[in-house]
Amino acid sequence: MRNPLYKHLMLTTMVALCFLFSPHKSSATHYMGGEITWECTPQGNFRFTMILYRECYTVSGGNAATFGQTIQMQTNVPGFPTIQMNRISLEDMSPTCECPGGLNIFCSGMPGASANMGAMQENVYTSDQAYPNGVPLTGVPLATGWHFSYGVCCRNPCNNILNTQSLQFRVRAFMYPYQNTPVDNCFDNSPSFLEGPSHVFCTGMPTSFNHMAYDADGDSLVFDWAEPLQHNINTPLVSYFAGYSWNSPLPDTMHHPNNVPASLDPHTGEISFTSYTNGAFVKVTKVSSYRNGVLIAEVFREIQVVVLPCDTNNTPTAAIYSMNHLPLTEISPGHYQMTVHPGDTVACQIAAIDPDLCNDQTTPQDVLLYATGNHFGTPVNPTPCADPPCATLTPSPSPGTPLSAPTALTTLFEWPITIDHLEGDGLQYFGKAYNYHFTIRDNFCPVPASRNIMLTVGVQPHQWMDSLPEILCLEVQQYGDVMITWNPATIDTNAFDSYTLKGSTLHTGPFVTLDQFSNMQQNTYTHVGSTSLSQPNYYNLYTNTLVPVLMSTPSKQITSTIYLQAITGYAHQETVTLSWNPTHYIQLPQSASAYQIFRREGTGSWQLIDTTINTHYTDTMQYQNQQVYYRVEFTVAGMSGTSCISRSNTASVFLNSTDDLLHLKHTPVIYPNPAQHQIVITPGELSGAFGLKMYHSNGQLVSEWNKHFEQGVELNLKLPNVAPGLYLMLFTHDAGTYSTRLMVTQP
User: Are residues 413 and 321 part of one domain?
Assistant: First the structure.
């Protein structure tokens, strides 16, 4: 075994020679890489995080220059040319190892330190200090994307790009438009990274690593190489040493016949290579997120990797084994795949072994296991997964604390699969893939060897799920009872057990059982005693099956009674503004194309007055001294050719031609109602300052505004992020007070 001091001297000499080819600038920031990501805040805004990685030492062993405490991130977002970012942490990211007898690399006071030995510091910046509630971006991103970036001079020296120590750098991210939806209420978290970058490797050792990209929204991720940038967002680096390029950033066989060029798996993000060539090399990995096939975000992790000569060490061996009847396939080295269905339970053993000794040739090496995955719960992830039950490991690592054992370790991966782990668009179920990454490292010094393995669990719907019933119509009857109609299941009668109907007054529940039916052909039920005359009522139908597996499957979307509201206004003649919510937020393919609007004047008969595809309507009437009633209907065709009707409650107003109602010109009108992200307020003939308070139906104050009316000018108002439900809107104006109800629905 080589003497560690000899090895260190060789490294120092190698790095120093690299610097001799071009002048070193003492003012350099010694940039080694970085990334920009964002996440949604509870207020519906954006929290940005920027991480910059810096070299700890100059070629002479002194401390490298540091980044500032406060920096400005540049953007092309209207109204936000810059976003202030403040540093919240500064951490040594050098390789950590505990094997006795080996060299340790660290940032502060390392004996004989020099540049490009792998001593790296992480600077974490956020927008929190400047924007405690998040950055309030609004509007729709450009087709070419909104970009967020930061750059200064200078880069660290390296071996794949010419004169990098004289060049500026720029780290960036892009936010793209999605279905022309304004970002006023943040609806997308960018991809982020669950692990810090792997940046130090040993010469001649087969290497694979993964940046562990994660998307909190479950969007699909695609990985690719990308160009490092210079001083602006449109200026890539173009001058490379022979044999290198932005999409071939590490040494290949041109530099040594035994080199294995770097490859990047576009589906998993796994990077693999073997380099017998020492040095430092700049590379950029792009992570693109797609929602329903539409590009929605791009983030870039740039990192300068260092390849060092090390003592002899082998990479740990690791594998995954199925512990039950579910088949497991290794589709490529280290990548395991399993296909499951709701009702299955995944049970796999992860086993790792490393029989090597430490540098002292006496002490066994430790094996360490780190786990990441977007559907792990605690303690692997700091918070529970979005759709429980979550995947678990027994025993389990936690953030910053891997599993550890001398020579070998095992852990059991378990995950019960339910209907919630499928994708659905409200009309049908789709399969969804979940990736779980496991990094296995030893504690060899100065550079631990590591191996990455991955488990992809593909959750697929049962074929018979497309034959399960859906609620078609909800008819509100005279005294508030609701007649519910669904299409019966068409599955094998031997597989059917029963239906369970559940209801709630909130879209988010809790849902309580209303009744259960054992006849598979039953398709109607009347809910007696609902509150549908004063608010929407929500329903879901569960089909309980016996084979192929005992399970209870809900309808693909929650349905709602149509709740109709009528508000009068004043504009030279009496008007009535109607607003309502749909039964299905994603319309069934057999639904009618338009709502029918009926009106009854006084004690007269119901008359069809119009049809509309919207969920709001304005009816203009001459002054009348009588009550006027409205209802809305919507027709859905059943699977057997029959049809049913969703019918709203009856809403009424009193229209009057006398002067005692001229105060109606001071009555503001809110639309749309129901609303989602924002509302429009029509002031009528009001002008001047007014106050508006938003109360939950339980009396709790949710939000309040102080605004100003201009006569005849509509006012757009952004709503806070609140749960779907009924809210009271209270206006206060010099002309008096006015209140109305607002229904907030799920987007």
Answer: yes
Query: What CATH number is attached to the domain comprising 368?
Result: 2.60.40.3590
Question: Does residue 546 share a domain with residue 674?
Answer: no
Long-range contacts formed by 245-250: CB under 8 A, 24+ apart: 246/284, 249/160, 249/225, 249/281, 249/282, 249/283, 249/284, 250/160, 250/275, 250/281, 250/283, 250/305
> Between 346 and 466, whose confidence is greater?
346
Kindly state whether residues 489 and 405 are assigned to the same domain: no
Cβ neighbors of 445 (< 8 A, separation 6 or more) are: 97, 98, 99, 101, 102, 103, 104, 358, 359
Mark 661-679 as b/e (b = at least 16 C-beta within 10 Å).
beebebbbbbbbbbbebeb
Give the Cβ contact number of residue 27 at 10 Å: 7
Give percent helix, percent strand, percent coil of the chain, each to the nearest 5. 5, 45, 50
Is residue 443's pLDDT more than 90? yes
Query: What proportion of the chain, given as a percentage, has pLDDT over 90?
Result: 54
Report the distance separating Cα 247 and Cα 229, nearest Å.
Answer: 14
Phi and psi dihedrals of 634, rounded to 5? -145, 130
pLDDT digits (tens, 9 = 90+) for 13-47: 343 333 333 333 334 468 999 999 999 999 999 99
Say if residue 453 is in the same domain as residue 524.
Answer: no
Do 397 and 501 lie in a common domain?
Answer: no
Domain count, the chain: 3
Among residues of the chain, what percentage have pLDDT more than 70? 91
Contacts of 619 (CB under 8 A, 6+ apart): 575, 576, 577, 578, 597, 599, 609, 610, 630
420 backbone dihedrals φ, ψ, rounded to 5°: -70, -15
Identify the pLDDT of residue 640: 59
CATH of the domain at 722: 2.60.40.2550
In this structure, the answer to whether residues 318 and 449 fall within a common structural domain is yes
Return the SS3 of 572.
coil
pTM surpassing 0.85? Answer: no
Among residues 438, 461, 484, the one where a domain terminates is 461
Residue 380: inside a domain: yes
Same domain, 705 and 684: yes
pLDDT reading at 627 higher than 80: no
Per DSSP, the residues of 529-568 read T--TTTS--EEEEEEEE-SSS-EEEE-SS-EE----EEEE
Whole-number Å distance between alpha carbons of 98 and 445: 7
Q: Residue with structure tokens 């740039």? A: 302
**159-186 pLDDT tens trace:** 999 998 889 999 999 999 999 999 999 9
CB atoms inside a 10 Å sphere around CB 88: 12
Domain residue limits at 508:
463-560
- Determine the pLDDT at residue 6: 35
In a domain, 732, yes or no: yes
In a domain, 658, yes or no: no
User: What is the pLDDT confidence band of residue 236, given thresholds at 50, 70 and 90?
Assistant: very high
The residue to which tokens 């194309």 are assigned: 593
State the chain's mean pLDDT as an integer: 87
